[in-house]
Design a protein that fits this description.
With about 425 residues, this protein is α/β, with parallel strands linked by helices. The protein contains 19 helices and 8 strands. Bound molecules: Double cubane cluster (BJ8). The site of Double cubane cluster has 20 residues, from helix 7, helix 9 and helix 18.
Length: about 425
């Protein structure tokens, strides 16, 4: 990595501790990604982004701040990035996906909190992630209890605005979400000093829709009988989508898709014929959480789809681009976002329909339902998910895990047996 120490220092980061992370990340990335054979050439871009993860993009964000732009950090796929970009600001995903940040979170949170929350709080409070330092304001949401309380703790250190996400999907709930989006618009306008207009919002709706279309194209390629890209590579692309510049990300992902579509025409696959195809469903896999994909794909199977927030929930369904007033556009945003199926909703049968649909579309041999330890929402929902899959005759296995490697061997044995059986 190039030398970014001055920049990290000026962000008030704990350089000594951060150095430890910089030491292990390249090794981890090398082991999981660079060891793969026959990777698409266009993966070079994403390799570069990860190699420079705490350098290049943070540098861009700081430059934008120097030019007067604000940066907003988000933690959930219900928060509409469109509004942020429409106010000439930048949105960046902030969820922590490494065990490295967990002990920092445990200083202030109960141990039995989900690792995603602990890592996110730890990354901020321990000052070991530039993105968490750079963001001028965090946008939280009332999705789960742990997050709701975490915003209060983070709010003592950085401005936080919390969106009140309804947890049912009745007409009045969609209206309530539109009201929350309006409230967010006000907060963003005041914080940035910029007005969101119908023109700027229309432009950003197209910008984010284009990103969704590129991701959708990537996933379409994964449906092919000859799989042109590994699950690991697709996952890291989904993770990068949360913080890369959206226009550049779209361009690079479309370029990758050109190559993948050519591979499909030429019958090029990254795996041997007959390799078992797996769909992952469950809690999000925030960067750099590559653990399960790595275990599955080094145990003789390939991940072809993720019904996750770092997966189909992030890009499925577009926002209607035909609306001409801000109020109508906000309703269109509320409609699109309330179509996401997170376990914090009750009922959440739409997620089960999605999983069964995706299992068919991606011709999977089995589904692995992954739950981050201490996430009771997805844990409880696992019961209905797994029952529905069994009824549909689709083999399924439930897994609970965290960010440590303590259970890696046990998982390898269980996953290996599952792949053997399907
Ligand atoms: S839309 S999945 S990004 S809330 S933080 S709920 S894992 S206990 S992340 Fe999420 Fe939005 Fe839903 Fe997606 Fe559980 Fe942990 Fe809570 Fe989590």
């Amino acid at each position: 990595m190039a030398d970014y120490r001055k920049m990290w220092e000026s962000l008030g980061m704990d350089l000594e501790t951060h150095d430890q992370l910089c030491e292990v990340l390249p090794q981890a990335f090398g082991d999981v990604f660079l060891s793969q054979e026959n990777r698409p050439e266009a993966m070079d871009y994403y390799n570069f982004v990860i190699a420079e993860i705490h350098g290049v993009r943070p540098q861009e964000l700081i430059k934008a701040q120097e030019e007067g732009k604000k940066v907003f950090g988000t933690f959930c796929v219900y928060v509409p990035d469109e509004l942020i970009f429409a106010a000439n600001a930048i949105a960046t995903g902030l969820c922590g996906g490494s065990q490295f940040w967990v002990p920092g979170g445990e200083k202030v949170l109960p141990t039995n909190t989900c690792p995603l929350i602990k890592a996110s709080v730890g990354a901020r409070l321990d000052r070991t992630c530039p993105f968490f330092r750079i963001a001028d304001m965090y946008i939280g949401e009332t999705t789960c209890d742990g997050k709701k309380k975490a915003w209060e703790i983070l709010g003592e250190d950085v401005p936080v605005h919390v969106m009140d996400l309804p947890q049912m999907k009745r007409e009045k709930d969609i209206k309530a979400w539109a009201e929350e989006i309006k409230e967010l618009k006000k907060v963003i306008e005041e914080f940035t000093g910029n007005k969101v207009t119908a023109e700027s919002l229309n432009e950003s709706i197209k910008l984010i829709n284009n990103k969704r279309k590129a991701l959708s194209r990537l996933y379409e390629c994964r449906k092919a009988d000859k799989v042109p890209i590994s699950g690991r590579d697709a996952l890291v692309i989904s993770q990068i989508a949360f913080y890369d510049d959206p226009a550049r990300f779209t361009q690079m992902t479309n370029k990758l898709c050109d190559e993948l579509e050519q591979r499909i025409k030429d019958g090029v696959s990254v795996v041997k014929e007959g390799t078992k195809r797996i769909l992952l469903t469950g809690t999000p896999l925030a960067v750099p959480n590559w653990k399960l994909h790595n275990i599955i794909e080094t145990s003789g199977a390939v991940v072809v789809c993720e019904e996750m927030c770092t997966g189909t929930r992030y890009f499925e369904n577009l926002v209607d681009e035909t609306k001409t007033t801000v109020d109508e556009q906000i309703d269109a945003l509320a409609n699109r976002y309330m179509g996401i199926n997170c376990a914090c909703f009750t009922p959440n049968t739409g997620r089960i329909d999605d999983i069964i649909r995706l299992a068919k579309e991606y011709k999977v041999d089995g589904v692995i339902d992954v739950n981050l330890k201490f996430c009771s929402l997805y844990d409880v929902e696992g019961y209905t998910v797994e029952r529905a899959l069994k009824e549909a005759g689709i083999p399924v296995m439930g897994i609970e895990t965290d960010y440590t490697d303590n259970d890696a061997e046990q998982l390898r044995t269980r996953i290996g047996a599952f792949i053997e059986m399907i």
